[in-house]
Design brief:
alpha+beta, five-stranded antiparallel sheet, four-stranded antiparallel sheet, 9 strands
């Protein structure tokens, strides 16, 4: 996958990260976004005997979370409906939900330097007992660091070989981190489980933003079909030319 999907995601990252960091402290009376954030954010903190510590957070970009985030941004920025639709369109375009499963990951490392490159061997998504590597991820995860590091990781939504939709009929998914991410783990892995049985990204594709997304998809499909048609017509033309050549030679031979 190309890195262009991070252009918009990077702009949103600071806002989303700040909101995610507040999740553990939210009151029971939290609003719709806060409640969605609590439901879809998982975290774990490891502290050794000397006080060195590592906190790992992950937020699954469910339809509920994405819709709540869009509505919050719209409310906070006093956007018109047109502005909100445009934001939603660009956000959904960057996430590529029709192809990928996005998860936001954050590390707060107050311990030994972490070496995560290449990051696609450090994290995997387990679905029905089978694991999948990231299809794309924020390349900043490949560099060693202490302190904070966050970014989006994208897992495939379809099985590469069979084309089967991975989450169809699935009740839960498990995000697993390799013990190699930090010596603080002492050889033990970190994993987070989300209940995705009721998650349906198609719920997001409604209204003006959805129409623009469908238009984009149909235009891309049309371009591909036109290209395929041109290639097939070129092949057919070549076949017809060869048929004419063979027929002419047969006619010549028949006259001899």
């Amino acid at each position: 996958m190309r890195n262009y999907r991070f252009k918009l995601a990077a702009l949103l990252l600071a806002v989303v990260t700040a909101l995610i960091s507040l999740a553990p402290a939210l009151p029971a009376s939290a609003d719709a976004f806060d409640q969605a954030l609590l439901r879809w954010t998982k975290s774990r903190k490891i502290v050794d005997e000397d006080g060195a510590n590592l906190e790992v957070k992950a937020t699954y970009y469910s339809a509920e979370f994405i819709e709540a985030l869009v509505q919050k941004e719209s409310k906070d920025n006093l956007w018109t409906q047109s502005e909100a639709d445009d934001y939603k369109y660009k956000f959904l375009s960057s996430l590529k939900l029709d192809e990928l499963i996005p998860i936001h990951i954050e590390f707060v490392n107050n311990g030994p330097t972490m070496y995560l490159g290449p990051f696609d061997i450090m994290v995997k998504l387990r679905v029905k007992g089978k694991t999948y590597k990231p299809a794309d991820y924020d390349k900043r995860f490949n560099f060693k660091f202490q302190g904070n590091k966050e970014g989006l990781v994208f897992f495939p939504r379809f099985d590469e070989k069979s084309g089967r939709e991975l989450l169809k009929g699935v009740s839960s998914v498990n995000l697993e981190f390799s013990p190699a991410i930090s010596p603080l783990l002492e050889g033990k892995s970190i994993s987070f489980i989300w209940d995705v049985a009721d998650d349906d990204p198609q719920k997001l594709y409604q209204g003006a933003a959805a129409n623009k997304l469908e238009t984009d998809r149909l235009i891309k499909r049309l371009e591909k079909l036109r290209k395929d048609k041109a290639e097939e017509e070129s092949k057919l033309s070549s076949i017809n030319e060869e048929l004419d050549t063979i027929q002419k030679r047969l006619d010549e031979l028949a006259k001899q």
